[in-house]
């Protein structure tokens, strides 16, 4: 059987691909740092968010940033920001999360998990699990609702899936996964495309087995996941990884809404193009349905 990616495209977006091509050409090809020295340079040049608060559950602590709408939230979205597991949340993340809270009338809880390489795996998934269990236990107390969704952006999407695999009895009504990475072992065809990336060594370099589903969730038991929205660009190096995860979830009996956006690279939903704006609209509409 041959899979035709055009079946996952919104045909109305075809008229906007030239705009995205122009933006791709303007920005050029970007890669993450190749080692610790480049990482420190990037960190020094990147403003990080300072608005986080400590939380604790069952003796474990982490930090979160909470964004509220005007009025009573109708649901809560637990969000894991991206950044290759090694960059912290930025003011841009805060602005995006507040816009989402205002647009949907929900609270957004963004997790400031510990970063690699100073805190390699399993520090980040431990923090992600702590935040999820805290939210499940205290959502009604803090937000007046128990309607919960989960999701993430790039590395944060990976953490969203590993969190769901750790919480088999989760109450989440849906998960938004924006271009996550799901095979860090380099053993699958998709995983081999990024096998030499520094973020993998920084995050999982000391792990005895990178096929552990807590690192590479594509190898996990994917039964029992909530409905997924998988958002990825057609030019993303992680496209195959996202298709593999979506296929495995469907094979396990799960529900996946796969959205592939033409002429779009990794992180494209942060851009100011028509296709990026449509993708953000699709995410908001999908989340609203799950938290209604």
Provide structural commentary.
The chain contains nine helices and eight strands. It is α/β, with parallel strands linked by helices. A hairpin with a 2-residue loop joins strand 1 and strand 2. Helix 4 crosses helix 5. The radius of gyration is 18 Å and the shape is globular. The chain starts with 16 loop residues before the first helix and ends with a helix.
Helix count equals: 9
The whole-number mean of residue pLDDT values reads 94
Main pleated sheet: 8 strands, mixed
> What coarse outline follows from CA principal-axis ratios?
globular
Listing every helix as H and every strand as E from the N terminus to the C terminus, the arrangement reads HHEEEHEHEHEHHEHEH
- Lateral arrangement of strands in the main beta sheet: 1-2-4-3-5-6-7-8
| Beta-strand proportion | 15-25%
Radius of gyration: 18 Å
Distance, first to last CA: 37 Å
* Structural class by SSE content: alpha/beta
Low-confidence stretches: none
What is the assembly state of the chains in this entry?
Answer: single chain
Helix content: 25-40%
Question: How many strands in all?
Answer: 8
Q: How is this structure best summarized?
A:
This protein is of the alpha/beta class. It has nine helices and eight strands.
Short key terms for the protein model shown above:
292 residues, alpha/beta, eight-stranded mixed beta sheet, 9 helices
